[in-house]
């Protein structure tokens, strides 16, 4: 971290700042440049609040030299992380996976949809048993019974299950049921007690980007999970809230190569929640694949007009078949060596 000092600062104020920094256990290296005086802070800069430092009278501005995310940072872990999701399915590096299924687990249609998505080439099954709904009066999900239906489908089809967890008190239940991947949704993206609790397990976590979360904040949320000891984090870009109203969210596809540059963690993209409309899901699934995502999460329902949630963005199984064929073509075009 570097503090650039105002031109009119007197020597005794600079000395006071230096001793303030040293009292925090850091070294302060003062250097007089041609135009400005700079103090370099060396040591554990997490002990310094950069906003407090910048608010000091003699400080012009503060610049970070290294990012505050350490465990998720590619600088300290150059190779891509590959997360083992169970049932022989790995994601990250050269392993590309498609997670598909209904928004909510609704009952016996789950297995029908699951068979179709598996036949089309999806390798992981999704379905929400605990649903984060904007309205408390909207359908809240089947709960533990929904987890059982997911696990039955997983065992019949030999594929890992991805399902959302909303409450830190449910972590043990998810572990006991054998849930393969716990999803943390956009609304809980910075629920720090939840992030810490899933961090205490080794179960892979699909961490979605919050609606107004910056890339750095997403990485810090991943850091919460990893700092508790769970290295199995998969990031998911699912659109952010902007002034645009023609789509449910604005799909920030920039985030895919940006995250791949900054972190070694696998990066998945969700064109369903990012667009909110069935008609836009396939083109954006293809675009996310071309942008270098390690995987996609796509909502599929066999009767979208009767779906209990998010029917407006669901692909039918036939549409999903076509989508998977075209994803394979994009994959071939961008990375022939990575072809399965
Ligand atoms: C979901 O996956 O069904 C979901 C609620 O996603 P998000 O948290 O991205 O809105
Ligand atoms: Mn949904």
Give a written overview of the molecule.
By secondary structure, this protein is of the alpha/beta class. Helices cover about 35% and strands about 15% of the residues. The chain is built from eleven helices and 14 strands. The protein has helices at about 10-25, 50-55, 110-120, 145-155, 170-175, 190-200, 215-225, 255-260, 270-275, 280-290, 315-335; strands spanning about 1-5, 25-30, 35-40, 60-65, 85, 90, 95-100, 125, 160-165, 180-185, 205-210, 235, 265-270, 295-300. It has an eight-stranded parallel β-barrel, surrounded by six helices. Strands 2-3-1-4 form a four-stranded antiparallel beta sheet. Helix 3 (about 110-120) runs parallel beside helix 4 (about 145-155), helix 3 packs parallel to helix 11 (about 315-335) and helix 10 packs parallel to helix 11. The longest helix has 18 residues, at about 315-335. It starts with a strand and ends in a 6-residue tail after the last helix. The mean pLDDT is about 95.
Write the layout of secondary structure elements.
Layout: E1 2-5, H1 11-23, E2 27-32, E3 37-42, H2 50-54, E4 59-63, E5 83-84, E6 90-91, E7 97-101, H3 109-120, E8 124-126, H4 144-157, E9 161-164, H5 171-177, E10 181-184, H6 192-199, E11 205-208, H7 215-227, E12 233-237, H8 255-262, E13 267-269, H9 271-275, H10 278-290, E14 295-299, H11 317-334
Parallel strand pairs: 7-8, 7-14, 8-9, 9-10, 10-11, 11-12, 12-13, 13-14
Antiparallel strand pairs: 1-3, 1-4, 2-3, 5-6
Bound molecules: phosphoenolpyruvate and manganese (II) ion.
